[in-house]
Amino acid sequence: xxxxxxxxxxxxxxxxxxxxxxxxxxxxxxxxxxxxxxxxxxxxxxxxxxxxxxxxxxxxxxxxxxxxxxxxxxxxxxxxxxxxxxxxxxxxxxxxxxxxxxxxxxxxxxxxxxxxxxxxxxxxxxxxxxxxxxxxxxxxxxxxxxxxxxxxxxxxxxxxxxxxxxxxxxxxxxxxxxxxxxxxxxxxxxxxxxxxxxxxxxxxxxxxxxxxxxxxxxxxxxxxxxxxxxxxxxxxxxxxxxxxxxxxxxxxxxxxxxxxxxxxxxxxxxxxxxxxxxxxxxxxxxxxxxxxxxxxxxxxxxxxxxxxxxxxxxxxxxxxxxxxxxxxxxxxxxxxxxxxxxxxxxxxxxxxxxxxxxxxxxxxxxxxxxxxxxxxxxxxxxxxxxxxxxxxxxxxxxxxxxxxxxxxxxxxxxxxxxxxxxxxxxxxxxxxxxxxxxxxxxxxxxxxxxxxxxxxxxxxxxxxxxxxxxxxxxxxxxxxxxxxxxxxxxxxxxxxxxxxxxxxxxxxxxxxxxxxxxxxxxxxxxxxxxxx
Length: 532
Known about the structure:
The chain is α+β, with helices and mostly antiparallel strands.
Protein backbone atom coordinates (compact mmCIF):
# COMPACT_ATOMS: atom_id res chain seq x y z
CA UNK A 1 0.00 0.00 0.00
CA UNK A 2 2.31 2.67 -1.28
CA UNK A 3 1.61 6.37 -1.03
CA UNK A 4 1.56 7.73 -4.59
CA UNK A 5 0.67 11.30 -3.60
CA UNK A 6 4.21 12.66 -3.46
CA UNK A 7 3.33 15.35 -0.94
CA UNK A 8 3.59 15.99 2.76
CA UNK A 9 0.41 15.87 4.82
CA UNK A 10 -0.27 19.02 6.80
CA UNK A 11 -2.26 18.89 10.00
CA UNK A 12 -5.03 21.20 10.96
CA UNK A 13 -4.87 21.14 14.74
CA UNK A 14 -4.73 23.46 17.69
CA UNK A 15 -3.14 21.17 20.26
CA UNK A 16 -3.39 17.56 19.14
CA UNK A 17 -0.52 15.15 19.60
CA UNK A 18 0.71 13.57 16.38
CA UNK A 19 0.98 10.16 17.97
CA UNK A 20 -2.75 9.76 18.66
CA UNK A 21 -4.42 6.77 17.05
CA UNK A 22 -7.99 5.56 17.15
CA UNK A 23 -9.13 3.62 20.20
CA UNK A 24 -12.29 1.61 20.71
CA UNK A 25 -12.46 1.95 24.48
CA UNK A 26 -13.83 5.51 24.47
CA UNK A 27 -17.53 5.65 25.19
CA UNK A 28 -19.98 8.09 23.69
CA UNK A 29 -20.32 11.16 25.89
CA UNK A 30 -23.81 11.97 24.68
CA UNK A 31 -25.30 15.18 23.43
CA UNK A 32 -25.25 16.82 20.03
CA UNK A 33 -22.24 18.27 18.22
CA UNK A 34 -23.18 21.17 15.95
CA UNK A 35 -21.18 22.25 12.90
CA UNK A 36 -22.00 25.52 11.10
CA UNK A 37 -21.24 25.13 7.39
CA UNK A 38 -21.35 27.73 4.64
CA UNK A 39 -23.87 26.14 2.29
CA UNK A 40 -26.49 23.47 1.93
CA UNK A 41 -25.49 20.48 -0.21
CA UNK A 42 -27.30 20.02 -3.49
CA UNK A 43 -27.82 16.42 -2.46
CA UNK A 44 -26.38 13.79 -0.10
CA UNK A 45 -25.67 11.13 -2.72
CA UNK A 46 -22.72 8.86 -1.92
CA UNK A 47 -20.75 10.27 -4.84
CA UNK A 48 -20.61 13.58 -2.94
CA UNK A 49 -18.13 12.06 -0.50
CA UNK A 50 -15.43 12.88 -3.06
CA UNK A 51 -15.29 16.59 -2.18
CA UNK A 52 -15.98 18.08 1.23
CA UNK A 53 -16.99 21.47 -0.15
CA UNK A 54 -19.89 19.84 -2.03
CA UNK A 55 -21.38 17.88 0.88
CA UNK A 56 -19.83 18.96 4.21
CA UNK A 57 -19.75 16.15 6.76
CA UNK A 58 -21.01 13.37 4.48
CA UNK A 59 -18.03 11.13 5.28
CA UNK A 60 -19.37 10.68 8.80
CA UNK A 61 -22.12 8.59 7.18
CA UNK A 62 -20.60 7.37 3.91
CA UNK A 63 -17.18 5.67 4.01
CA UNK A 64 -14.72 4.81 1.25
CA UNK A 65 -12.66 1.71 0.57
CA UNK A 66 -9.41 3.66 0.98
CA UNK A 67 -8.70 7.11 2.34
CA UNK A 68 -5.74 9.44 2.80
CA UNK A 69 -4.24 9.56 6.29
CA UNK A 70 -4.36 13.26 7.33
CA UNK A 71 -1.15 12.90 9.30
CA UNK A 72 1.07 11.07 6.80
CA UNK A 73 -0.61 11.59 3.42
CA UNK A 74 -0.40 7.81 2.80
CA UNK A 75 -3.23 5.67 1.54
CA UNK A 76 -4.80 3.55 4.27
CA UNK A 77 -7.59 1.01 4.42
CA UNK A 78 -11.11 1.88 5.53
CA UNK A 79 -13.61 -0.63 4.15
CA UNK A 80 -10.77 -2.39 2.33
CA UNK A 81 -8.06 -4.08 4.37
CA UNK A 82 -5.57 -4.49 1.50
CA UNK A 83 -5.21 -3.91 -2.23
CA UNK A 84 -2.82 -4.77 -5.05
CA UNK A 85 -2.26 -3.77 -8.65
CA UNK A 86 -3.27 -6.45 -11.14
CA UNK A 87 -2.20 -4.46 -14.20
CA UNK A 88 -2.09 -0.88 -15.49
CA UNK A 89 -5.84 -0.52 -15.31
CA UNK A 90 -6.97 -2.84 -12.49
CA UNK A 91 -6.78 -2.85 -8.69
CA UNK A 92 -7.88 -5.88 -6.64
CA UNK A 93 -9.11 -5.18 -3.09
CA UNK A 94 -9.84 -7.37 -0.09
CA UNK A 95 -12.80 -6.06 1.89
CA UNK A 96 -13.31 -5.85 5.62
CA UNK A 97 -15.61 -8.64 6.78
CA UNK A 98 -18.56 -8.29 9.13
CA UNK A 99 -19.48 -4.75 8.06
CA UNK A 100 -23.14 -3.84 7.54
CA UNK A 101 -24.80 -0.84 5.96
CA UNK A 102 -27.11 1.28 8.07
CA UNK A 103 -30.09 -0.53 6.51
CA UNK A 104 -28.79 -3.85 7.86
CA UNK A 105 -27.58 -5.27 4.53
CA UNK A 106 -24.13 -6.80 4.25
CA UNK A 107 -21.19 -4.91 2.81
CA UNK A 108 -19.82 -7.69 0.64
CA UNK A 109 -18.11 -7.74 -2.73
CA UNK A 110 -21.33 -7.71 -4.75
CA UNK A 111 -22.64 -4.68 -2.85
CA UNK A 112 -19.34 -2.81 -3.20
CA UNK A 113 -19.09 -3.57 -6.92
CA UNK A 114 -22.62 -2.23 -7.40
CA UNK A 115 -21.82 0.96 -5.49
CA UNK A 116 -18.56 1.63 -7.39
CA UNK A 117 -20.03 1.03 -10.83
CA UNK A 118 -23.05 3.19 -9.97
CA UNK A 119 -21.01 6.15 -8.74
CA UNK A 120 -18.66 6.21 -11.76
CA UNK A 121 -21.25 5.41 -14.45
CA UNK A 122 -21.07 8.24 -17.04
CA UNK A 123 -24.81 7.92 -17.60
CA UNK A 124 -25.48 9.11 -14.05
CA UNK A 125 -23.67 12.41 -14.70
CA UNK A 126 -22.42 12.69 -11.12
CA UNK A 127 -20.04 15.56 -10.38
CA UNK A 128 -17.35 13.05 -9.32
CA UNK A 129 -16.78 12.62 -13.06
CA UNK A 130 -14.39 15.58 -12.88
CA UNK A 131 -12.02 13.11 -11.18
CA UNK A 132 -12.85 10.15 -13.44
CA UNK A 133 -9.49 9.97 -15.21
CA UNK A 134 -8.86 8.76 -18.77
CA UNK A 135 -11.27 5.81 -18.72
CA UNK A 136 -14.60 4.55 -17.39
CA UNK A 137 -14.37 2.89 -13.97
CA UNK A 138 -16.31 -0.29 -13.21
CA UNK A 139 -16.09 -3.03 -10.58
CA UNK A 140 -16.90 -6.72 -10.22
CA UNK A 141 -16.94 -9.21 -7.37
CA UNK A 142 -14.40 -12.02 -7.66
CA UNK A 143 -15.16 -13.57 -4.28
CA UNK A 144 -17.34 -12.94 -1.26
CA UNK A 145 -14.99 -10.23 -0.02
CA UNK A 146 -12.78 -9.54 -3.03
CA UNK A 147 -13.51 -6.99 -5.71
CA UNK A 148 -11.67 -5.85 -8.83
CA UNK A 149 -11.92 -2.23 -9.93
CA UNK A 150 -11.00 -1.55 -13.54
CA UNK A 151 -10.57 1.51 -15.72
CA UNK A 152 -11.21 1.13 -19.44
CA UNK A 153 -7.87 2.92 -19.98
CA UNK A 154 -4.53 2.55 -18.16
CA UNK A 155 -4.76 4.66 -15.02
CA UNK A 156 -1.85 5.08 -12.57
CA UNK A 157 -4.16 7.15 -10.32
CA UNK A 158 -6.84 4.50 -9.85
CA UNK A 159 -6.03 4.05 -6.14
CA UNK A 160 -6.48 7.78 -5.63
CA UNK A 161 -9.88 7.69 -7.30
CA UNK A 162 -10.92 4.99 -4.83
CA UNK A 163 -10.24 7.42 -1.96
CA UNK A 164 -13.06 9.55 -3.40
CA UNK A 165 -15.68 6.89 -4.07
CA UNK A 166 -18.32 6.72 -1.31
CA UNK A 167 -19.76 3.24 -0.76
CA UNK A 168 -23.49 3.13 -0.08
CA UNK A 169 -26.19 0.49 0.19
CA UNK A 170 -26.62 -1.59 -2.95
CA UNK A 171 -30.19 -2.38 -1.92
CA UNK A 172 -31.03 1.32 -1.94
CA UNK A 173 -29.30 1.83 -5.29
CA UNK A 174 -31.28 -1.01 -6.84
CA UNK A 175 -34.66 -0.58 -5.11
CA UNK A 176 -34.90 3.15 -4.27
CA UNK A 177 -32.43 5.08 -6.44
CA UNK A 178 -34.26 8.38 -5.92
CA UNK A 179 -33.82 8.10 -2.14
CA UNK A 180 -30.09 7.77 -2.68
CA UNK A 181 -29.90 11.53 -3.21
CA UNK A 182 -31.47 12.67 0.07
CA UNK A 183 -31.25 9.67 2.43
CA UNK A 184 -27.65 8.42 2.50
CA UNK A 185 -27.16 4.85 3.69
CA UNK A 186 -23.54 4.06 4.38
CA UNK A 187 -21.38 2.16 6.88
CA UNK A 188 -19.96 5.10 8.83
CA UNK A 189 -19.75 5.95 12.54
CA UNK A 190 -22.89 8.07 12.22
CA UNK A 191 -26.10 7.15 10.42
CA UNK A 192 -28.36 9.63 8.67
CA UNK A 193 -31.52 10.80 10.46
CA UNK A 194 -33.05 13.79 8.67
CA UNK A 195 -32.51 16.65 6.26
CA UNK A 196 -34.53 19.76 7.06
CA UNK A 197 -34.24 21.68 3.79
CA UNK A 198 -32.78 25.14 4.16
CA UNK A 199 -31.84 24.49 7.80
CA UNK A 200 -29.65 21.46 8.59
CA UNK A 201 -29.01 17.77 8.12
CA UNK A 202 -28.50 15.43 11.06
CA UNK A 203 -27.06 12.02 11.88
CA UNK A 204 -26.90 9.86 15.00
CA UNK A 205 -24.18 7.62 16.40
CA UNK A 206 -24.12 4.15 14.84
CA UNK A 207 -23.91 1.59 17.67
CA UNK A 208 -23.09 -1.14 15.14
CA UNK A 209 -20.18 0.67 13.52
CA UNK A 210 -17.42 -1.79 12.63
CA UNK A 211 -14.79 0.61 13.99
CA UNK A 212 -15.90 0.05 17.57
CA UNK A 213 -14.44 -3.47 17.48
CA UNK A 214 -11.57 -3.11 14.97
CA UNK A 215 -7.95 -2.65 16.00
CA UNK A 216 -7.03 -0.91 12.75
CA UNK A 217 -9.78 1.74 12.63
CA UNK A 218 -9.04 5.20 11.29
CA UNK A 219 -9.39 8.44 13.26
CA UNK A 220 -8.34 9.58 16.73
CA UNK A 221 -11.45 8.72 18.72
CA UNK A 222 -14.59 6.63 18.74
CA UNK A 223 -17.87 8.51 18.18
CA UNK A 224 -18.30 10.81 21.17
CA UNK A 225 -21.78 12.19 20.49
CA UNK A 226 -25.28 10.86 20.18
CA UNK A 227 -25.99 13.25 17.32
CA UNK A 228 -24.19 15.52 14.89
CA UNK A 229 -25.96 18.37 13.11
CA UNK A 230 -24.66 20.34 10.11
CA UNK A 231 -26.39 23.73 10.09
CA UNK A 232 -26.42 25.82 6.89
CA UNK A 233 -25.35 29.45 7.31
CA UNK A 234 -24.00 31.19 4.22
CA UNK A 235 -23.06 34.38 6.08
CA UNK A 236 -19.66 34.22 7.78
CA UNK A 237 -20.91 36.46 10.58
CA UNK A 238 -23.81 34.08 11.29
CA UNK A 239 -21.49 31.07 11.63
CA UNK A 240 -19.15 33.05 13.87
CA UNK A 241 -22.04 34.20 16.05
CA UNK A 242 -23.18 30.60 16.53
CA UNK A 243 -19.79 29.63 17.97
CA UNK A 244 -19.57 32.72 20.12
CA UNK A 245 -23.04 32.08 21.52
CA UNK A 246 -22.36 28.40 22.14
CA UNK A 247 -24.93 27.36 19.52
CA UNK A 248 -22.28 25.57 17.44
CA UNK A 249 -19.08 23.77 18.40
CA UNK A 250 -17.40 24.21 15.03
CA UNK A 251 -17.77 26.76 12.20
CA UNK A 252 -15.99 26.49 8.87
CA UNK A 253 -14.34 29.28 6.87
CA UNK A 254 -14.18 32.13 9.39
CA UNK A 255 -12.83 35.49 8.28
CA UNK A 256 -9.27 36.47 9.22
CA UNK A 257 -10.76 39.06 11.59
CA UNK A 258 -12.77 36.32 13.31
CA UNK A 259 -9.58 34.31 13.77
CA UNK A 260 -7.82 37.30 15.28
CA UNK A 261 -10.72 37.85 17.67
CA UNK A 262 -10.55 34.21 18.77
CA UNK A 263 -7.07 34.79 20.17
CA UNK A 264 -8.62 36.95 22.88
CA UNK A 265 -11.54 34.67 23.65
CA UNK A 266 -11.22 31.81 26.12
CA UNK A 267 -14.31 30.01 24.86
CA UNK A 268 -13.18 29.13 21.35
CA UNK A 269 -10.10 28.94 19.16
CA UNK A 270 -9.29 29.48 15.50
CA UNK A 271 -7.27 26.82 13.73
CA UNK A 272 -5.96 27.19 10.19
CA UNK A 273 -3.65 25.40 7.76
CA UNK A 274 -2.94 25.01 4.03
CA UNK A 275 -5.45 23.12 1.94
CA UNK A 276 -5.72 21.43 -1.44
CA UNK A 277 -8.16 24.14 -2.56
CA UNK A 278 -7.49 26.90 -5.03
CA UNK A 279 -9.51 29.82 -6.36
CA UNK A 280 -9.49 30.34 -10.09
CA UNK A 281 -11.17 32.28 -12.87
CA UNK A 282 -12.31 30.08 -15.74
CA UNK A 283 -12.46 32.43 -18.70
CA UNK A 284 -14.81 31.22 -21.44
CA UNK A 285 -13.01 30.76 -24.75
CA UNK A 286 -14.15 27.47 -26.23
CA UNK A 287 -17.03 26.16 -28.31
CA UNK A 288 -19.80 28.53 -27.24
CA UNK A 289 -17.88 31.54 -25.95
CA UNK A 290 -18.01 35.12 -27.22
CA UNK A 291 -15.56 35.22 -30.14
CA UNK A 292 -13.84 38.30 -28.73
CA UNK A 293 -12.41 36.18 -25.93
CA UNK A 294 -10.56 34.18 -28.57
CA UNK A 295 -8.36 37.23 -29.16
CA UNK A 296 -5.14 36.64 -27.21
CA UNK A 297 -4.74 40.35 -26.49
CA UNK A 298 -8.14 40.51 -24.80
CA UNK A 299 -7.34 37.51 -22.61
CA UNK A 300 -3.92 38.88 -21.72
CA UNK A 301 -5.49 42.21 -20.81
CA UNK A 302 -7.86 40.44 -18.42
CA UNK A 303 -5.08 38.42 -16.76
CA UNK A 304 -2.81 41.43 -16.29
CA UNK A 305 -5.59 43.68 -14.96
CA UNK A 306 -5.78 41.85 -11.61
CA UNK A 307 -3.77 42.71 -8.50
CA UNK A 308 -3.16 39.19 -7.24
CA UNK A 309 -1.41 40.17 -4.03
CA UNK A 310 -4.20 42.56 -3.18
CA UNK A 311 -6.76 39.87 -3.93
CA UNK A 312 -5.03 37.36 -1.63
CA UNK A 313 -4.98 39.99 1.13
CA UNK A 314 -8.67 40.64 0.59
CA UNK A 315 -9.53 36.95 0.86
CA UNK A 316 -7.29 36.45 3.88
CA UNK A 317 -5.72 33.06 4.67
CA UNK A 318 -4.62 32.86 1.04
CA UNK A 319 -1.43 33.14 -1.01
CA UNK A 320 -0.57 34.10 -4.58
CA UNK A 321 -0.21 31.11 -6.96
CA UNK A 322 2.93 30.65 -9.05
CA UNK A 323 1.11 30.99 -12.37
CA UNK A 324 -0.47 27.51 -12.18
CA UNK A 325 -3.33 25.75 -10.43
CA UNK A 326 -1.29 24.00 -7.77
CA UNK A 327 1.52 24.07 -5.23
CA UNK A 328 5.23 23.14 -5.45
CA UNK A 329 4.72 19.71 -3.85
CA UNK A 330 2.52 18.54 -6.74
CA UNK A 331 3.65 16.27 -9.55
CA UNK A 332 3.90 18.40 -12.68
CA UNK A 333 4.59 21.69 -10.90
CA UNK A 334 6.89 24.01 -12.87
CA UNK A 335 9.10 25.97 -10.50
CA UNK A 336 10.32 28.41 -13.17
CA UNK A 337 6.86 29.82 -13.86
CA UNK A 338 5.73 33.04 -12.22
CA UNK A 339 2.35 34.51 -11.50
CA UNK A 340 1.00 36.88 -14.14
CA UNK A 341 2.10 40.44 -13.45
CA UNK A 342 -0.36 43.07 -12.33
CA UNK A 343 0.13 45.62 -15.10
CA UNK A 344 -2.97 47.73 -15.80
CA UNK A 345 -1.07 49.92 -18.26
CA UNK A 346 -0.19 46.85 -20.32
CA UNK A 347 -3.85 45.78 -20.19
CA UNK A 348 -4.99 49.16 -21.49
CA UNK A 349 -2.48 49.09 -24.34
CA UNK A 350 -3.55 45.56 -25.33
CA UNK A 351 -7.19 46.63 -25.39
CA UNK A 352 -6.30 49.68 -27.50
CA UNK A 353 -4.35 47.50 -29.92
CA UNK A 354 -7.25 45.06 -30.30
CA UNK A 355 -9.68 47.94 -30.80
CA UNK A 356 -7.46 49.45 -33.51
CA UNK A 357 -7.52 46.13 -35.34
CA UNK A 358 -11.31 46.14 -35.42
CA UNK A 359 -12.13 44.00 -32.37
CA UNK A 360 -15.32 45.35 -30.76
CA UNK A 361 -13.89 45.40 -27.25
CA UNK A 362 -16.23 48.21 -26.23
CA UNK A 363 -19.22 45.95 -26.90
CA UNK A 364 -17.75 43.14 -24.80
CA UNK A 365 -19.19 42.64 -21.31
CA UNK A 366 -17.57 40.00 -19.10
CA UNK A 367 -19.84 38.49 -16.45
CA UNK A 368 -17.78 37.75 -13.34
CA UNK A 369 -19.87 35.08 -11.65
CA UNK A 370 -19.25 33.24 -8.38
CA UNK A 371 -20.97 30.64 -6.21
CA UNK A 372 -22.20 31.21 -2.69
CA UNK A 373 -20.11 29.34 -0.14
CA UNK A 374 -16.82 30.38 -1.74
CA UNK A 375 -14.82 32.42 0.81
CA UNK A 376 -15.57 36.16 0.46
CA UNK A 377 -17.04 35.58 -2.98
CA UNK A 378 -19.03 38.81 -2.97
CA UNK A 379 -15.96 40.92 -2.31
CA UNK A 380 -13.80 38.85 -4.69
CA UNK A 381 -16.16 39.19 -7.64
CA UNK A 382 -16.67 42.89 -6.94
CA UNK A 383 -12.94 43.64 -6.90
CA UNK A 384 -12.30 41.60 -10.07
CA UNK A 385 -15.12 43.52 -11.75
CA UNK A 386 -13.48 46.76 -10.62
CA UNK A 387 -10.08 45.70 -12.02
CA UNK A 388 -11.61 44.86 -15.41
CA UNK A 389 -13.57 48.07 -15.64
CA UNK A 390 -10.50 50.03 -14.59
CA UNK A 391 -8.58 48.96 -17.71
CA UNK A 392 -11.49 49.45 -20.08
CA UNK A 393 -13.14 46.01 -20.10
CA UNK A 394 -16.84 46.21 -19.30
CA UNK A 395 -17.75 43.82 -16.50
CA UNK A 396 -20.80 42.90 -14.46
CA UNK A 397 -20.80 40.90 -11.22
CA UNK A 398 -23.12 38.06 -10.24
CA UNK A 399 -23.09 35.73 -7.22
CA UNK A 400 -25.40 32.73 -7.44
CA UNK A 401 -26.41 29.76 -5.31
CA UNK A 402 -25.12 26.33 -6.31
CA UNK A 403 -28.39 25.25 -7.93
CA UNK A 404 -28.13 28.19 -10.35
CA UNK A 405 -24.34 28.39 -10.72
CA UNK A 406 -23.49 24.73 -11.30
CA UNK A 407 -25.63 24.12 -14.41
CA UNK A 408 -24.28 27.29 -16.02
CA UNK A 409 -20.65 26.19 -15.76
CA UNK A 410 -21.19 22.87 -17.51
CA UNK A 411 -21.02 22.41 -21.24
CA UNK A 412 -24.79 22.03 -21.61
CA UNK A 413 -25.18 25.37 -19.87
CA UNK A 414 -22.68 26.99 -22.23
CA UNK A 415 -24.79 26.01 -25.22
CA UNK A 416 -27.98 27.43 -23.75
CA UNK A 417 -26.40 30.88 -23.33
CA UNK A 418 -24.17 30.99 -26.40
CA UNK A 419 -22.37 33.13 -27.21
CA UNK A 420 -21.33 34.38 -23.81
CA UNK A 421 -18.43 36.06 -22.07
CA UNK A 422 -18.05 34.74 -18.55
CA UNK A 423 -15.34 34.42 -15.93
CA UNK A 424 -16.35 31.70 -13.48
CA UNK A 425 -14.73 32.50 -10.13
CA UNK A 426 -14.76 29.21 -8.32
CA UNK A 427 -13.04 27.21 -5.59
CA UNK A 428 -11.86 23.73 -6.45
CA UNK A 429 -10.06 20.99 -4.52
CA UNK A 430 -7.35 18.67 -5.79
CA UNK A 431 -6.22 16.08 -3.26
CA UNK A 432 -4.43 13.99 -5.88
CA UNK A 433 -1.03 15.60 -5.36
CA UNK A 434 -0.54 16.03 -9.11
CA UNK A 435 -1.67 18.11 -12.08
CA UNK A 436 -3.25 15.35 -14.15
CA UNK A 437 -6.57 15.66 -12.38
CA UNK A 438 -7.03 19.39 -12.83
CA UNK A 439 -5.69 19.42 -16.38
CA UNK A 440 -8.28 16.85 -17.41
CA UNK A 441 -11.17 18.53 -15.60
CA UNK A 442 -10.29 22.11 -16.51
CA UNK A 443 -8.62 22.04 -19.92
CA UNK A 444 -9.62 18.95 -21.94
CA UNK A 445 -12.11 19.87 -24.66
CA UNK A 446 -15.71 19.42 -23.42
CA UNK A 447 -18.11 17.39 -25.52
CA UNK A 448 -21.60 18.84 -25.92
CA UNK A 449 -22.87 15.31 -26.53
CA UNK A 450 -21.30 14.05 -23.29
CA UNK A 451 -22.36 16.45 -20.53
CA UNK A 452 -21.26 13.89 -17.92
CA UNK A 453 -17.63 13.83 -19.04
CA UNK A 454 -14.70 14.73 -16.82
CA UNK A 455 -14.13 17.93 -18.79
CA UNK A 456 -17.73 19.10 -18.83
CA UNK A 457 -16.77 22.31 -17.00
CA UNK A 458 -13.72 22.99 -19.16
CA UNK A 459 -13.49 26.34 -20.93
CA UNK A 460 -10.63 25.35 -23.22
CA UNK A 461 -10.50 23.34 -26.44
CA UNK A 462 -7.32 22.31 -28.26
CA UNK A 463 -7.18 18.86 -29.90
CA UNK A 464 -3.37 18.80 -29.93
CA UNK A 465 -3.30 19.57 -26.21
CA UNK A 466 -5.85 16.82 -25.57
CA UNK A 467 -3.78 14.23 -27.40
CA UNK A 468 -0.69 15.16 -25.39
CA UNK A 469 -2.66 15.18 -22.14
CA UNK A 470 -4.14 11.71 -22.61
CA UNK A 471 -0.70 10.38 -23.48
CA UNK A 472 0.64 11.90 -20.24
CA UNK A 473 -2.17 10.38 -18.16
CA UNK A 474 -1.03 6.88 -19.16
CA UNK A 475 2.49 7.52 -17.81
CA UNK A 476 3.83 7.24 -14.27
CA UNK A 477 6.76 8.43 -12.19
CA UNK A 478 9.35 10.79 -13.68
CA UNK A 479 7.90 10.42 -17.19
CA UNK A 480 4.49 11.55 -15.98
CA UNK A 481 6.03 14.47 -14.07
CA UNK A 482 7.93 15.67 -17.14
CA UNK A 483 4.91 15.32 -19.44
CA UNK A 484 2.67 17.22 -17.03
CA UNK A 485 5.25 19.97 -16.61
CA UNK A 486 5.33 20.44 -20.38
CA UNK A 487 1.56 20.82 -20.47
CA UNK A 488 1.49 23.22 -17.51
CA UNK A 489 4.12 25.40 -19.17
CA UNK A 490 2.17 25.45 -22.43
CA UNK A 491 -1.05 26.48 -20.65
CA UNK A 492 0.70 29.34 -18.87
CA UNK A 493 1.21 30.97 -22.26
CA UNK A 494 -2.35 30.30 -23.40
CA UNK A 495 -4.00 32.60 -20.82
CA UNK A 496 -6.83 30.13 -20.44
CA UNK A 497 -7.68 29.98 -16.72
CA UNK A 498 -6.59 32.52 -14.12
CA UNK A 499 -4.96 31.06 -10.97
CA UNK A 500 -6.30 33.60 -8.46
CA UNK A 501 -5.27 32.27 -5.04
CA UNK A 502 -4.11 29.21 -3.11
CA UNK A 503 -6.42 28.93 -0.11
CA UNK A 504 -5.75 28.08 3.48
CA UNK A 505 -8.80 26.86 5.37
CA UNK A 506 -9.78 27.55 8.92
CA UNK A 507 -12.28 26.80 11.65
CA UNK A 508 -13.59 28.34 14.81
CA UNK A 509 -13.81 25.54 17.36
CA UNK A 510 -15.09 25.22 20.90
CA UNK A 511 -12.05 25.36 23.19
CA UNK A 512 -13.03 22.01 24.72
CA UNK A 513 -12.15 20.19 21.49
CA UNK A 514 -9.29 19.60 19.07
CA UNK A 515 -9.66 18.63 15.42
CA UNK A 516 -7.19 17.03 13.06
CA UNK A 517 -7.55 16.95 9.30
CA UNK A 518 -5.34 16.89 6.23
CA UNK A 519 -5.10 19.19 3.24
CA UNK A 520 -8.52 17.98 2.08
CA UNK A 521 -10.08 19.45 5.25
CA UNK A 522 -12.77 16.87 5.84
CA UNK A 523 -14.96 17.37 8.90
CA UNK A 524 -15.03 13.87 10.39
CA UNK A 525 -15.95 13.52 14.04
CA UNK A 526 -13.68 10.50 14.55
CA UNK A 527 -10.87 13.05 14.07
CA UNK A 528 -12.21 15.10 16.96
CA UNK A 529 -10.85 14.75 20.50
CA UNK A 530 -11.26 16.52 23.80
CA UNK A 531 -8.66 19.15 24.67
CA UNK A 532 -6.05 18.18 27.21
